[in-house]
What does this fold into?
Amino acid sequence: MREIKFRAWNNELKTMADNNNLQGTLGSMILATRSDGKEFTFMQHTGLKDSEGLEIYEGDIIKYRDFNDKNHYLLVQWSKENASFLIGWVRIDYAKNGVIVGNKFENPELLEESE
It folds into this structure.
């Protein structure tokens, strides 16, 4: 069984807090947010690491090289329909062959790039 971990993007301060900087349980983290729920965006760890050993979280952007040697920048997302994490059109387990190059909050321009 994988460890359940989260990180949070502070929508007001525009900063990321990783799992080590979050206090308490998920319940207390949610209670710590404002009543409108817009202060933080929580992202769950996928249980996987990229090719460089970095933990992959929901919201990360993965640089993935396809079979034709073309680079793609793909967003890690939770799919309700599939009840699993996906990266763009590629299964999440392919992410371990890619490398994290940013996230959707700090590097949104990467999602528009492709070689």
Q: What stands out?
A: The CA atoms of residues 1 and 105 lie 29 Å apart. The beta strands are 6-10, 15-17, 40-49, 55-57, 60-65, 71-79, 84-87, 90-91, 99-103. The two ends are 37 Å apart (CA to CA).
